[in-house]
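Q: For a teaching handout, I want to show students what a protein-ligand complex looks like in token form. Below are the inputs, and the small molecule is zinc ion. Please produce the holo structure.
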Amino acid sequence: MGVLHDAMTPKRSVPPRSTRQRQAVLSALHARGAFTSARDLHEALEADGVAIGLTTVYRALHVLNRTGRVDVIREKTGERLYRPRPEDGHRHYLVCRACGLSKVVEADAVERWAENVAEATGFAEVEHTVELTGVCGDCRVGPAARDSAG
Ligand SMILES: [Zn+2]
Ligand SMILES: [Zn+2]
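A: Here is the structure, written as tokens, with zinc ion included.
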């Protein structure tokens, strides 16, 4: 089986199965709104009666991330969480390592820096991934903060 880039596939009246599955994954992600793991998303899809395998969900999320349709963050457990990317571009998040709360942060400096790097190096299509993690106010005052040493 040959690997074909989706962008190269000519437009058809009936989209291929993989495209339909990707759309189902993306709309399920939109319905959730918050950062969601592939496992949770898979459960939500199955609950909606969508017959889709967990591997397919992972693959769809990978493609959606690569094509800039979803943002991904990594939890301390190593698990990846996904969220649909806003129409007007990507966002940077500050994520609480304790409870998973995510907050959109201003990153104009990062955007300008990335543009400058692209200009200075002559690189095109420069992309960046910036992950900020911390401990949110609620978690900082909770018992967890006192129990953990260091
Ligand atoms: Zn927290
Ligand atoms: Zn950025």
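A: Two things your students might notice: DSSP finds six helices and six strands in the chain. The beta strands are 36-37, 70-74, 80-84, 92-96, 102-105, 131-134.
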